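Take a record:
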Amino acid sequence: MADKKTGFAVLKRILRFSKPYLPYLALSALFAVINVGMTLYIPILIGRAIDLAVGIGSVDLAGMIPILIRLGICAAIAALSSWLVNLSTNKLTYHTVRDIRRSAFGKLQKVPLSYIDNTPHGDIISRIITDTEQISDGLLMGFTQLFTGIVTIVGTLIFMLSINFWITLVVVVITPLSFFVASFVAKHSFEMFRKQSETRGKLTALTEEMIGGQHLVKAFSHEEEAQEEFDGINEVLMDYSVKAVFFSSLTNPSTRFVNGLIYSGVGIFGALSALSGGLTVGMLSSFLTYANQYTKPFNEISGVITELQSALACAKRVFEIIDAEDEPAEPENAVTLTPENTDGNVELNNVSFSYKPEIPLIEDLSLNVKTGQKIAIVGPTGCGKTTLINLLMRFYDVNGGCIRVSGENVLNITRDSLRGAYGMVLQETWLKNGTVFENIAYGKPDATEEEVINAAKAAHAHSFIKRLPDGYNTHISDDETNISQGQKQLLCIARVMLCLPPMLILDEATSSIDTMTEKRIQRAFDEMTKGRTSFIVAHRLSTIREADCILVMQSGHIVEMGKHDELMEKGGSYAKLYNSQFEAS
């Protein structure tokens, strides 16, 4: 019962997405009725023609010609209406699926970053691309064949009743067997298709993960383990796929068996009726044709059920993305930060945060950063450095305490303006699929060519860009290898150089750059950070000697704070970290 309710609820949601395109559904229904009407009228014309050819030498050719002309016209109208049914259904289906896919992708722009972090990226890709494609396949076949099939069944019964009531009754009595088969298949195949779709998502996630990390897989000779993991999920996928196909494949032979019973019943009772004079030979021929046409939709509907169950299972996974919770809504009177009202003061008051409640991370963290100060954050891996950056940018919200920017609680500031007030360069580079120019201008799409070139020069990227095949118009992406990792980092730095927001976050921004270039970049950073509040996460402590304040973090707490010389004199955690990087090997 739960599966039926779930499937029906999912179907209702799909139909809600189809609501703007109901005119296409109405046209499809209209043309389907015309198609079925013409298709069902043809056997009557054939029966009449047969009755005009009852024996050798007694063929009424003059009477046949008008019948044959009408038959040709009906066949032409049936063919045209069939094409229009498919055209209308295609419009309905692909517009609906386009909107579902757009809604799912749009939701990804609204969910908190924790949703993206906690969901395998390959699974998300599988839901938005593969699962929505399955929805279109199911809907396309469903709307076309299901509706046409039902109209055919109803229309055939009407035509058969007009010929002979008792033989039609035989057909109606045997028909419920087909509905029993359809119900049995729907109940068992939905669950299998759901599990199949989920496992396919896991397999996509693993494949995406392995392809993205193929260098490390080979470096650590992990090929066999990766293959074993893939084979394990692939085996489960095969098992669910076989079971899904098994249950769905029961439909066709079962409905064919029922169809055979119906056809046999019509043949036997029709022959007896013809012998007793209740039917003409032409009428019996028409009735047998109707019996065949009546049973045909049941075979088609059995295929529809299989595709529809798969589509509903996939739609359920897509709707899980659409139903994900958005980031908490911003207050109606939320403050918008602008360069004019952003002074760069940042305060952290008794901030607490953990990704999981049972695993504490940052606890009771307080910090007061003044305008233009350069704050360096150092500490061992996992101490909370990047987490602190996530909190400053509001990628995550604090569990306790508050963060203030320019005197305003960040919870009362619009996210867009808060994030726009920071310029961020991360250790992990990211480039969009586009030209070098478009990548540098990503944060300022209206930038002029001169501004982009000046930003590239400031980031020491201009010289290598000019050596590219098409210079600033060279097409690049994050996955391509036509530029090095260090060059990608320079482009990311140029992107921030172009915007120059009031505050900066540099998270290991020079980690992929050689020492000589790093020194030039450091000079550029020094110029860029003048008068701007900046937070610098660094492992190479030599790059932060001139910081106004160095925060040493351990297990989410600030254990030391001060300038480089002060901390070195103390001989504490910072001094040990610093000296460990310059010890003689």
Observations:
- The longest strand covers residues 346-353.
- Residues 20-322 form a domain with the ABC transporter transmembrane region fold fold (CATH 1.20.1560.10).
